[in-house]
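Q: Sequence in, structure out?
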Amino acid sequence: MLSGEIATLISGRYVQIEMLPLSFKEYMESTGDMNERGIKYVQYLENSSFPYALELKGQQEEIRDYLEGIYNTIVVKDIVSRKKITDMMMLKSVLRYMLLGSRQMPDIY
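A: Exactly. Output:
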């Protein structure tokens, strides 16, 4: 839900907490070690830059489930319902191209 929609659905007050992905510098600092930048950059790209993914500390199955949940909730459900998209395969093809270009798309997408 977008912040404007929350205000219309909830009467009264609410607190909006904005969560942004970590920058690579923040990711490096959160690991406690500023060495091995090349290896950590690959991990940053593969395991996500979302703070909660760092909490999972390399538990690939849990990270994958977390990212799949984000993808299905935000991309699939929210975009499809908001824009009334009927061709899910086309949406996924466009997203695959936007996210990875010519690289292979992981199975979760």
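The chain has six helices and no strands.
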